[in-house]
Amino acid sequence: xxAFIDIKPGQWVLAFSEPYGPQMQDMPEHxxxxxxxxxxxxxxxxxxxxxxxxxxxxKPKPYHPRTYTIGQSVTHPRDYLRERQYRGNVIAVGxxxxxxxxxxRIFAIGEDADDVIEAxxxxxxxxxxxxxxxxxxxxxxxxLPHHFRSEQ
Length: 152
What we know:
The structure is a single chain. By secondary structure, the protein is α+β, with helices and mostly antiparallel strands. It contains three helices and six strands; from the N terminus they run βααβββββα. Strands 1, 2, 3, 4, 5 and 6 form a six-stranded antiparallel sheet that branches. 19% of the residues are buried.
């Protein structure tokens, strides 16, 4: 099990939203998932996966947020004294601005890597794909010659 990060009231933390946090693995292994777009949640936004919280109270396992950010806006929970977050989902501690920047940088790593991989993949497959598509067109022409008489 990964040790909890030391946090104090008044600090801002970058943490996984509860369903996206490490459940079956340690934090380092879980963070390495972000080598891919969205860390495996490709269609999810950065704000869904990561939250930035202002801490009011810290207990041995949970902590209580006063405010948290979704995107760049700040939200106040209805009853922040009852709102609890698991400390095992905390990634880093710092200023609000630094945590938002870190969140965006973590998320961008996998997006950038996958963009480069996809571009290279399509570049390498381009000639092969053109040959296969041309062969497919010829098969369609042979299968339905009455639609393509002028080309034969």
